[in-house]
Amino acid sequence: MVPDYHHVAVATGGRQVHIAGQVAWDEHGTLVAPGDLTGQVAQVYRNVAKSLAAAGATFADVVRVTWYAAGWRREMYDAFRAGVEQAREELGITTTRHPRR
Known about the structure:
- The protein has about 100 residues and is mainly α.
- It has 2 helices and 2 strands.
- It is globular, with a radius of gyration of 14 Å.
């Protein structure tokens, strides 16, 4: 978790959970898989899964995913996609769609 940043917001009335600011850090604030985009993407999805679980939700409840990557280059897409696939297998995610190239 990034200090002084709200990673999860829950709306009242109809229940909505907004999760933001997930990064490739573990529970101790240590960067996971330095220099390895695939490993970092998988860690971000692990962190999202933990945030969803804390709100009583799963990836089946997710409506939209928006991601940002510093220094993004088109040739990084395959490593990004491999991280998404790794997370899908590890976490049993069946509803995640890949972003367009």
